[in-house]
Amino acid sequence: MKPEILTGIAAIISAGTALVAVFIGPLVTAKINRQDSLSAMREKWIADLRETLSEIISTAETASSIIVQSRAIEPNFKEAYNKLVLLEGKAKMMLNPREVDHNSLEMILDSIVQLAGDESIKIKEKMPQMRELTESVIPVAQAVLKEAWERTK
Questions:
Q1: pLDDT tens digits, the chain, 153 residues: what are they?
Q2: CB crowding 80-99: b at 16 or more within 10 Å, else e
Q3: Measured between alpha carbons, how far apart are the two ends of the chain, in Å?
Q4: Could you say which DSSP state residue 2 is in?
Q5: What is the 3-state secondary structure (H, E, C) of 43-107?
């Protein structure tokens, strides 16, 4: 082959390579950036859910241990119960209803709020039941958080 033809072919290949790089490069960069931002959002979600569930456990045990005097609901109980309901709603908004572990966690949270608000159960009976429920949150929450962490990696 003549050197002019080889030079022309080399120029065409170089131009084609540059053209592909111009179009493919930004696509690859966008995909990498998207994965990085998803990982960051998942990490924040994990931290927020962990904190919310910790607050729920603490608030539930506080709400169920406040002594009700003279059959009137104390303001401290109302405050703790309202906080518990707020935290339950926040946690539920963070859960995926399509995931089995998420649904299990949601059912436990429902039970916690229901028990905390049940005035017909005496404190001595309520505390062990609440302790059992709050302790059951931990393994289910760990499964939910572990699965989310695995997706983040």
A1: 677 777 878 788 888 887 777 777 777 777 777 777 778 888 899 999 999 999 999 888 877 766 444 345 566 778 888 999 999 999 999 999 999 999 999 999 999 999 988 878 877 788 889 889 999 999 999 999 999 888 877
A2: bbebbeebbebbeebbeeee
A3: 53
A4: -
A5: HHHHHHHHHHHHHHHHHHHHHHHCCCCCCCCCHHHHHHHHHHHHHHHHHHHHCCCCCHHHHHHHH
